[in-house]
């Protein structure tokens, strides 16, 4: 128990518990309502909005599964997020490795280059980006999104990974060098395995915003078959605007995977998502 | 099985020279210990030898062949680090076999070598453990085992025992000495510990700020330090120095006066000193005895006395040296604050000239 | 000596040079992909944006160089600048409101959580849960909840006898922006909370113990010890909130639409930029020139003010030794 928590039972403590509790209800209740409503029919939603569903019917989910593009969106989002994070971690870790483990001319310059990338809001360069990707044939193409997300998240990834890689003792590297390992083997077999927790953190840090983003798909993707989940939901909302049960089911389905991972891995999620803001 | 030779080895880091032209020969099967104050370049010299750092200038030969262009693993050396540097995600077996795996040795050969090394170091039981599950001493042994399996011609140790507690150090010291006998290979060993240096070394290399000051057998260094620095560095507790001046010089017969007025005569090389040269007279604590039976006497006030029964250390303060130490083999009943007289004999003293170099007494 | 260098050393120097060469190649291999990606997809477009803003555009085709003409159009043309001014002040409102509601609440929550009450882990997870969800989900979910007739909010108000309060929250210019700000606060409050919490946990416990032994009340401890020592976290959150507020796009887009309805009361710089660049009912055809000019202006504004804010806020930070 924290040393901050000395007194208990007095009025202040009670107020604190009430405040936290009410806030928790405000945070959780809408999400629970969203999930519960997804099992309801339209009539049920109108007539008894706050009650538990009469039966946990999966009809709404069945409609989504069979009659909408949402499964397709889901796959697209998985591909985009998965590949972006993979490329990010590989490329970002490589660069961070060079910057953190070697002394060479230009090290500081290149570090500053990555650091300055942190401050550029790519959204405001959307027009040139659009023209550029158009020229490369990457508009309306998942690869285009992957390029953007990778580039956009690289500076932060390099930054986070550099911090972790710096903390590894150099004697390990020296020792592997004495053992005859090549620089490549030292990186892959000795150093990188030691920072897997950091890679998980950096992975979450990037994956969540990429999975959730809908600004870039909004501009770069038009065909229904390439839409991502977040973006696709907007189309789906247009289509089913009067069938509330289906809408809630769609939202629930979109929220579910990331929420499940979060609840299991909350510590890492919190560490990951606040990684950029906590020194 | 290797001789080593360093010629004019120089190293600078970004323009700051930290090794200034080191020359050194090491015989086959020798146990060589590098000592010197912190930051004098011991580790750097070791890393230059191992290939972990590139030379700025100079040459290194092993068995007569120049090797300073070769990468670390091709020099036939193995190194044991102060922090052990075990790979945390690998088992003891994997740690010990990594170098062989990298060298693409056959599974069978790897197995044999690792088992043999584990046998020598009593690690057989621990082969499947990760480093985290080992004690400090066990980790140290794994680090040594990792070096042994490679069958190196030279072992390099950088303060390998400094992370162990006193008892383990003594034990590992003995084990290492035995290992040296058993393996018959050249070993270079960096330490801060006087006792390790004196007991383990065939040859001690004393360094100071990037220079090799003296190389020699432990007792040679103790008995005939070439300069004031080595004299003060080798031996524990450290030698006492008294400042003085030459007051007459005549064809190799000199007379000197210490700052407290004590005068003495000695013979040395003619012309080596002239009148008014400043000198340092060095007397080891064990050569400074209570009473006035010796050739020179000093008065000092005891500031602290350590009576251990079989021996006594007394810390004295006198105008000529505020921190004198005497070491008496036996019990000596002095009280702190007491004024006592101590004396020394000239033939057990060391004399250093104005350049701080040793001046040999003659006749 | 010189001769020896020339004759004997050469083969060795060759070997060394080869190794150095190899090391250089290795470093290039490590760094090249990241630098190339970043240059191509971040630095190049950012630089182009500035370039584009000084040209006339016809669809995707670049026309003539017109100097600051586009900037003039954005800033001075009354047909445009009335939107610009309206949107800008809406962003300012968003920033102030989020600072008070979202970050203020976060601070209180963090101070409470720092005492590690029962349910500490649960609260952390509960507060952070919306943060991980997509703005799209949040936006639509709350749009459904705020539906004037059968939305949960109004239903709830009616069911507790506050039927008079039930209103079309997103349909009235007076309430729409406020509702969206509250939704955003609901979405993000967990983030500053946990950043503040981490900062508080980093304050040495003995400092707080010492203050308590000196007889300080909990309030005085919060004000005199915790608050000044968590300054770095406050700096980061203020700057992030500032950047977020002036880039605000998703929530108003989803809940109010591209035209900032009702009646442009939820119009934002981000929406205006999107409309200008890609065309809309009010802004007419897509115009990359004025769009780029607007983007450059927004960037300069955000960059300048966040730099000044960082400077100012950092100056009140104290080093923890
Ligand atoms: N990589 C480096 N870059 C710059 N200077 C260095 C580097 N490595 C060592 N030095 C400097 O070289 C000098 C010698 O360092 P070295 O580590 O060899 O000392 P040491 O004798 O091993 O000391 P210790 O007993 O503390 O281990 C020191 O002044 C140190 O600061
Ligand atoms: Mg050292």
UniProtKB/TrEMBL annotation, chain A:
Q: Where in the cell is it found?
A: Cell membrane
Q: How does it sit in the membrane?
A: Multi-pass membrane protein
Residue stretches making up the ABC transmembrane type-1 domain: 74-265
Task: Read off the InterPro entries from this record.
Answer: MetI-like, MetI-like_sf
Q: Which residues cross the membrane?
A: 12-32, 73-99, 111-131, 143-165, 186-208, 242-264
What keywords does the record list, in alphabetical order? Cell membrane, Membrane, Transmembrane, Transmembrane helix, Transport
Principal place of residence? membrane
Show the PROSITE patterns listed in the entry. Answer: ABC_TM1
- CDD domains, A to Z: TM_PBP2 (cd06261)
Give the family from UniProt.
Answer: Belongs to the binding-protein-dependent transport system permease family.
Q: State the name under which the record lists this protein.
A: Carbohydrate ABC transporter permease
The upper taxonomy is: Bacteria, Pseudomonadati, Pseudomonadota, Alphaproteobacteria, Hyphomicrobiales
UniProtKB/TrEMBL annotation, chain B:
Q: Which UniProt keywords apply?
A: ATP-binding, Cell inner membrane, Cell membrane, Membrane, Nucleotide-binding, Transport
Fetch the PROSITE patterns from UniProt: ABC_TRANSPORTER_1, ABC_TRANSPORTER_2
Taxonomic lineage of the native organism: Bacteria, Pseudomonadati, Pseudomonadota, Alphaproteobacteria, Hyphomicrobiales
Which terms in the Gene Ontology molecular function aspect does this entry carry? Answer: ATP binding
UniProt cross-references to NCBIfam families, sorted A to Z: PRK11650.1
| Name of protein | Sn-glycerol-3-phosphate ABC transporter ATP-binding protein UgpC
UniProt similarity note:
Belongs to the ABC transporter superfamily.
Residues covered by the ABC transporter domain: 4-234
Give the InterPro entries listed for this entry: AAA+_ATPase (IPR003593), ABC_transporter-like_ATP-bd (IPR003439), ABC_transporter-like_CS (IPR017871), ABC_transpr_MalK-like (IPR015855), ABC_transpr_MalK/UgpC-like (IPR047641), Mo/tungstate-bd_C_term_dom (IPR008995), NA-bd_OB-fold (IPR012340), OB_MalK-like (IPR040582)
Residue stretches spanning the membrane: none
Q: Which organism is it from?
A: Maritalea mediterranea
From TrEMBL, chain C:
Spans traversing the lipid bilayer: 25-55, 94-113, 125-142, 185-204, 225-249, 293-313
Indicate where this protein resides in the cell: Cell membrane
The residue ranges of the ABC transmembrane type-1 domain are 88-309
The record's listing under InterPro entries reads:
ABC_transporter_permease (IPR051393), MetI-like (IPR000515), MetI-like_sf (IPR035906)
User: What membrane topology term does the record carry?
Assistant: Multi-pass membrane protein
Keywords annotated in UniProt: Cell membrane, Membrane, Transmembrane, Transmembrane helix, Transport
* A Pfam short name: BPD_transp_1
- What family classification does the UniProt entry report for this protein? Belongs to the binding-protein-dependent transport system permease family.
This protein is called: Sugar ABC transporter permease
Whose protein is this, by species? Maritalea mediterranea
């Amino acid at each position: 128990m924290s040393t901050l928590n000395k007194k208990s039972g007095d009025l202040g403590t009670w107020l604190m518990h009430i405040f936290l509790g009410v806030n928790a209800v405000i945070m959780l209740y809408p999400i629970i309502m969203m999930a519960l409503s997804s099992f309801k029919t339209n009539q049920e939603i109108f007539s008894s909005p706050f009650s538990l569903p009469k039966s946990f019917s999966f009809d709404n989910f069945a409609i989504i599964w069979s009659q909408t593009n949402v499964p397709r969106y889901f796959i697209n989002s998985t591909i985009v997020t998965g590949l972006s994070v993979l490329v990010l971690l590989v490329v970002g870790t490589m660069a961070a490795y060079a910057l953190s483990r070697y002394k060479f001319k230009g090290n500081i310059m290149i570090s500053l280059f990555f650091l300055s990338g942190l401050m550029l809001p790519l959204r405001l360069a959307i027009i040139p980006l659009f023209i550029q990707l158009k020229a490369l044939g990457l508009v309306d193409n998942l690869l285009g999104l992957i390029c953007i997300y990778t580039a956009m998240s690289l500076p932060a990834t390099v930054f986070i990974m550099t911090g972790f890689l710096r903390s590894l003792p150099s004697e390990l590297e020296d020792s592997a060098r004495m053992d005859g390992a090549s620089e490549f083997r030292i990186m892959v077999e000795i150093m990188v395995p030691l920072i897997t927790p950091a890679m998980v953190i950096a992975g979450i840090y990037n994956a969540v915003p990429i999975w959730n983003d809908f600004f870039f798909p909004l501009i770069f993707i038009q065909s229904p078959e390439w839409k991502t989940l977040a973006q696709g939901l907007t189309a789906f909302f247009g289509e089913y605007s009067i069938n509330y049960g289906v809408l809630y089911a769609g939202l629930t389905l979109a929220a579910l995977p990331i929420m499940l991972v979060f609840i299991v891995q909350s510590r890492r999620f919190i560490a990951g998502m606040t990684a950029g803001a906590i020194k | 099985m290797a001789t080593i030779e360093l010629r004019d080895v120089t190293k600078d880091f970004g323009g700051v020279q930290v090794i200034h032209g080191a020359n050194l020969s090491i015989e086959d099967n020798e146990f060589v210990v590098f000592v010197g104050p912190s930051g004098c370049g011991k580790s750097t010299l070791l890393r230059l030898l191992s290939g972990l750092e590139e030379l700025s200038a100079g040459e290194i030969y092993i068995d007569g062949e120049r090797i300073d262009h070769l990468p670390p693993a091709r020099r036939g050396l193995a190194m044991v680090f102060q922090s052990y540097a075990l790979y945390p995600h690998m088992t003891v077996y994997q740690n010990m076999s990594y170098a062989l795996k990298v060298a693409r040795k056959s599974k069978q050969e790897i197995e044999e070598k690792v088992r043999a090394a584990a046998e020598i170091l009593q690690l057989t039981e621990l082969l499947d453990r990760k480093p985290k599950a080992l004690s400090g001493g066990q980790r140290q042994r794994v680090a040594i085992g990792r070096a042994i399996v490679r069958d190196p011609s030279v072992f390099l140790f950088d303060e390998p025992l400094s992370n162990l507690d006193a008892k383990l150090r003594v034990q590992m010291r003995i084990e290492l000495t035995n290992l040296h006998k058993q393996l018959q290979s050249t070993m270079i060993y960096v330490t801060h510990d006087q006792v390790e240096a004196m007991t383990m070394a065939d040859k001690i290399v004393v360094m100071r700020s990037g220079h090799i000051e003296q190389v020699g057998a432990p007792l040679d260094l103790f008995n005939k330090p070439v300069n004031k620095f080595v004299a003060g560095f080798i031996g524990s507790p450290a030698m006492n120095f008294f400042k003085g001046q030459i007051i007459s010089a005549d064809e190799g017969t000199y007379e000197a006066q210490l700052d407290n007025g004590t005068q003495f005569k000695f013979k040395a090389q003619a012309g080596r000193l002239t009148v008014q040269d400043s000198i340092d007279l060095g007397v080891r604590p064990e050569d400074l005895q209570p009473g006035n039976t010796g050739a020179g006497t000093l008065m000092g006030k005891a500031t602290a006395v350590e009576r251990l029964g079989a021996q006594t250390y007394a810390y004295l303060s006198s105008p000529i040296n505020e921190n004198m130490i005497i070491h008496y083999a036996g019990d000596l009943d002095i009280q702190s604050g007491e004024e006592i007289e101590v004396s020394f004999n000239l033939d057990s003293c060391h004399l250093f000239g104005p350049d701080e170099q040793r001046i040999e007494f003659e006749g | 000596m010189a001769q020896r260098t020339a004759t004997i050393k050469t083969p060795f120097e060759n070997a060394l040079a080869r190794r150095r060469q190899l090391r250089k190649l290795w470093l290039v291999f490590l760094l090249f992909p990241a630098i190339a990606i970043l240059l191509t997809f971040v630095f190049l477009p950012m630089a182009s944006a500035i370039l584009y803003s000084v040209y006339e555009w016809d669809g995707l085709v670049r026309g003539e160089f017109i100097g600051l003409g586009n900037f003039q159009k954005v800033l001075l043309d009354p047909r445009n600048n009335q939107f610009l001014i309206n949107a800008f002040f809406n962003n300012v409102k968003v920033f102030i409101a989020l600072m008070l509601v979202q970050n203020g609440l976060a601070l209180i929550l963090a101070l409470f959580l720092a005492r590690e009450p029962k349910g500490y882990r649960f609260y952390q997870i509960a507060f952070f849960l919306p943060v991980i969800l997509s703005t799209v989900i949040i936006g639509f979910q709350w749009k459904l909840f705020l539906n004037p007739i059968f939305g949960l909010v109004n239903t709830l108000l009616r069911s507790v006898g506050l039927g008079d309060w039930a209103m079309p929250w997103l349909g009235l210019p007076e309430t729409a922006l406020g509702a969206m700000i509250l939704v955003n606060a609901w979405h993000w409050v967990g983030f500053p909370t946990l950043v503040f919490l981490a900062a508080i946990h980093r304050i040495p416990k003995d400092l707080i113990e010492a203050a308590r032994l000196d007889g300080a009340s909990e309030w005085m401890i919060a004000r005199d010890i915790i608050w000044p020592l968590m300054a770095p976290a406050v700096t980061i959150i203020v700057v992030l909130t500032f950047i977020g507020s002036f880039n605000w796009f998703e929530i108003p887009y989803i809940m109010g639409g591209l035209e900032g309805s009702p009646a442009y009361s939820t119009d934002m710089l981000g929406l205006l930029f999107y409309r200008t660049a890609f065309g809309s009912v009010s802004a007419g055809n897509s115009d990359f020139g004025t769009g780029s000019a607007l983007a450059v202006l927004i960037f300069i504004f955000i960059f300048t003010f966040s730099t000044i804010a960082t400077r100012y806020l950092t100056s009140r930070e104290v080093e923890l030794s």
